[in-house]
Structure formats: C-alpha cells, structure tokens
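Homework-ish question, so no full write-ups if that breaks the rules, but can someone show me the predicted structure for this set?
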Amino acid sequence: MTQKRRVLISMAAALAIMPAAAAWADPAGGGADYQKLEHKYQQLQEQMATMAKQMSAMQKQQAALKASQAKAATTDTAAIDREVKRLYRRVMKDSQKISNLEPGNIQVLIAGDVNFQFQHVDGSASTFYADSSPMIQVRVDKNIFINTAFDFYTSAGAAGGSAADIGAANINYELNNYVTLGGGLVTSPIGGIVGQYNPAPWNRWLVDGSLEGALLPPNELGVWTRGGLPAPDNMGYLTYFLFVSNGPVLATTHDINGASYNNLGFGNWNPAAQNGKTVGGRFSYLPIPNIELGYSFEWSRPSADGSITTTNSLINAVDINTYYVNKKIDGLFRFRGGWTWDQVGQGIDSTGAFSLGGMSNGGQLEVAYQPSLCGIKYLDKMMAAFRYDRIDGPAAANFSNGASHEQRYSIGLDYWLHSNAVLKFEYEFDNLSNGLHGNDAMYVQFAVGI
Amino acid sequence: MNLMKYKITRSITITAAAMGLVVMAGCASNKSTKSSSAAAKPAVWPLTIKDPAANESGAQIWAENCMRCHQLRSPSQYTPAQWGIIVQYMRLRAGLTGTQAKKVLAFLQSASAH
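A: Not a homework solution, just the prediction itself:
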C-alpha cells in the first residue's frame, strides 16, 4: 500500500506541473521558443508514458486484490479505484492540452460530392449533366470550424457550357455546450427538410428537388447562432438556429433571381437589391431521436425591383423528418414532409396604382423504404421512394400560363452501392391546374459523397 | 459491409425504452425539479435540464442521430483525424451539444482505428 501511495503522490506532483508547462509553452511565441517547447513536450510525453505503465500495473494489482480480498477490503479498493480514475481523467485532460500545442493543429478535409445524370424532361431535349460540389472543411481548433463549398455544373445556357456557385463560406465558433455563433454564407435552415437534409445528392433518395424549394431561401448570408439542448425534464431534445441576413427580393415586373411576378427571389447575396434585412430561424423538437418536428419563419422587408415601395414578407414553414429501422419491417423506413407559406404584404408604388400581396404555398410528402435487414443479397441495397409535392400561387404569379397550382408524383428506385454511393432512377408525373399537363421527367443519376 | 445492418435494431429498443422514460419522467417531474436541482446537472431556470449525453454512450448517440439526414457512414471510412473535422461540422448540422459531439467523436475515432 505505501508503495502505491508513493506512486500516486509522484504522479500527482508530475501532473501538477503539466498545466503550468502547457500555459508557458505558447505556440504563438514563435520559432525561438519552439525548440524549448518541443523538448518539454517530449519530456512530458515520456513522463506520461511512464505514468500510464505504472497505472496499468496498478490496475492489474488492484484487480488481483479485488479478487483475493473479495469482501474484506472493499472500501479501500473503492478509494484507490476512484483515485486511479481521477488521475486517469487528469492525464487525459493534460494530454489533450499538450496535443493542442503540437504544430500542425489546423486540420483540413476535402469533402462534398460528385454526380452525373441523364435526364429527359418533356418539352426539352434529353441531356447528360454533371455536377461537382467540393467542400473545404477546416477544423481550426477545437472551437472553430470553417466551411467553404462550391458547386460546378454543366449548363447549356451558360457561357462556356458550365456554371459555378458558391454554396457556403462560413466561420463558426463553439461558444459552449449549447451555443455556436457563426457568420458568412450558410445553408438556410428554413423549411428544414429542404435545406438541412437535402442539399447533397447522396443525401437524397430522389434526383429532382422538391417544388417547395422554390418558396424557400437556399442560403442565408449573415450572422447566426445555432445549437441544441435537451428539453426540460427529459422530455426530448430541442434545436434552434436564429439569424439576421440579407433578405429576399420581391419580383414585381419580371423574372428576378429566378422568381416570377409577385414572388420572393432568393439570390440574397446581391447587395444592390438588398436594403431590407431578414430576421429568421428554425426551431425543432425531437420527442425521440427518430422524430424531428420543425417550425421556421423568416420576416423581411424585401427590396422590390421597379418603383414599388418596400413591403413586408413573411415565410412560415413546418417540417417533419422521421426514420424507423427494425427487423420487423426488414429494414429502414423514412418519412419526410413539409409545407411552406410565403406571404407578401401589400405594396403600393409612387402613383398608388400598383398593388401586390398574396400568398404562395407548397409542400411535399416523401417516403422511402429499404429492406436493408431482409438478408437477401442485392435486394437489401435497393430503396424505393415516393414523393408527392405541390405548389400553389396567386393566379398568374407562379405560372406564366395562368395555372394556379402545380402538383407532381415522383417514384424512384435507388441502389445503394455504399452508404455514400447511389444509383438512382426516377420518374416524375407533373400536372398543372385546369387539367393542364406539366412537364413529366425522367432521371437516371449516379452520385457519390466524398 | 452493409451499413444499414449496423447496430440499428438496438437503437429502436432504446428509443422504445426512452418513450417509456418520457412518460415516467413526466410523472416524476414535480418531485425531481426541486430535489435534484442541487445535483451536478446544469439547471436552466425554471426547469432542470439533463444532458442526455450524460448517460448515453457515443455509439448510441451516433446510431440515433447520424442517420437522421443521410445513410450512416462507416467509422472505417475516415481516419480519426478526419472524424475530428467531420464531427465538428455535423455537430452544427445535427444540433448536438458539445458533450454529445465529444462522445460520438470518441466512439468514431476508436472504431475507425480498429
């Protein structure tokens, strides 16, 4: 016993100097201190290795002791056990501190995805299409994360036959267990299921995006706070994402940022069109981890093109995301749904002659099933997916041909070669109101997540 | 390897148990809010917030949360250092607490190294 105590005391003494050494060894001090730091670091590493050996020897002794003195010395061994655990925790903590001082602490990952597809949309010529979306993800230190994402894709209309977008450029600081602060360009949380869950093709079961996406901002350019916390009294889990960003543009006369008359356009990093800023956010509640219920809102005073005075706009959206994996159903079942309301207030131009206002809304229901646990080769990698989506708008607002809504039924069959590689086949039936037929479409896509 | 087979059935059992707990916690909440406020758990006025990560393992948090949005990626797909970057990002996407993220990372790093 006395020998053990001696070991413990010498370990505690050695540990006590570590934080001091760590504080002293400031890597920002530059090259002159570096030699010293490295030397000290190596010494500490050696000390730790010795300590770890001593500890494991002690743990073995302790186990033997426990076995032989089954009942007699329980309090004694419990105390030693606690002490060893306490010391172990300290060693881990200090080794973390030291490893933070190691040169080369910034870590970079190239992630993202690449996909190519063949598509045939009614009314357009069939075409191949390819898309590469690299991301540079950087862990600056344990609290700071930077993400940059690009999107390069073929586009017949664009000069040179291709186009590029920036998808993300943001810096995030983890303030504490529940709060992260961030700024830059980030995937918008509004409408949860479209933005948060769907952007990368290897994250989707269907090739084409949903109609609801037209009513939602794909990105936010601004500042935000986000995080999650357990609901009070063990009643599930809550997440939040609140931001101030450049707001949408209201299209009054012609197509602007992809939006037609009386709709909101979301090319929201164009400062010339942006005076009114947006306040928005999304809250979600997970009663159990498999079920997420989301509500989001975005209020703004959108800049209007032309002579229309600025008016208000309000986006409200609800979403649900669930999954269920069980042997009883031989695999994985997913269900997602969402609905968005885009509301534009009355706006009047300088002559008082022009008035806007109205509501566009739309949403989707999506189910997917993969018999991943059926035990039948190849079948366990197949996934069947179905989606119903629609969009309604004030007549003449969404649709140039006067229709008031569009609805689609999409069926998909996917083959998951790997968790990040999927071959998809999809057929989309498209209908407009008044019995008008929309543009049915067929897609075959191969997508790989990096 | 078929990832969908990876330990998921267990997470459903846990989920069912969690649902039971939610009901029980509801009944016991009046008592526990007062008496346990002195305990080590962080308290946020006016109710007690218990970090579920405190009694969940990294593997469990991973199985329950990391397939909400996409297929589960195998721990062996990335090196321990790469997981460090990914989990820092996915903590944001998934809205995890710092404690949960640390546990998931420890699990992924040890599973990746083997």
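Now go work out the reasoning yourself. Hint: Chain A touches chain B through 61 residues (CB under 8 Å).
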